[in-house]
Amino acid sequence: MASIYHFFKSLTQTSEYFKEIAKLADFPFDESLLSCHNIGRFPDLAIKLNAENELFTGGELIELKDNKSYSISSFNSTIPTGQKNINDLLPTKNSKIRDQMEAAGDDIYSLPQRDVFYLIRGKDNKRNTVKTVLVHGSFFETISVNKLISGSFSQILEERIRESGIEVNDETKKTIIDIFSEQKSFSKVRHVDKASVKLRFRVMTEAKAEGNILSTAKYPEIEDDTLNLILPCHDEETEKMLRLKFETVFGKAATKRFKIFKFKHHFNGYFLVFQQITN
Length: 279
What we know:
Helices cover 28% and strands 22% of the residues. It is α+β, with helices and mostly antiparallel strands.
């Protein structure tokens, strides 16, 4: 059986490594839970699928984020989201990710929509403390990717219009902004006639203060020297289900050893935390 809960359980069993290892990529992950392991390319890790299991479907995608401070390193190329469609990750037949997943026994397309998680480690070297979180991608996706891109492009367009003095009516501006609202428009390599180089625009995303889960000022609930599983929890029924899944994997006695609480995101409602002290 594999799921994000089983993966988190495996992390709790070797949590001392979060303070010891130089690079998060060197963590001794439980390979028996993984269908994909490709550090440096999204997803860095993927959980195996569980055929016909309604409680634990598995298939979660995980990206590693490591930093030497309590800030989150940039999200390079892949804008953080709560879910991704597996078809967007496997665009061609020749795919190392597909080969690994199939070799692990996954029926890849049986679960098209995959939950995305980020395993984030930050350090305070002065105090020799570490915070580690396994957080659902919806923590960062407070608006849709299309709205994020179109809103950013709108700012660029408005700046250029003001600087150039060109008059553009609102309808034309809206049409242009709508056209440039998808990330794939920027991710393709562009070939220009007679150019000796190719051009590809790279979208990079950085967490604002309100989206920095490691920030002591913004999220003091995430304490030093802790390992945390953080899940969206916007109603009581969801909370009951999350607690049930956690207890099913860990057992009642072990669950009692975790600090379990909810906190409010500055932009995106409530999240449920399962917190383990690691020092």
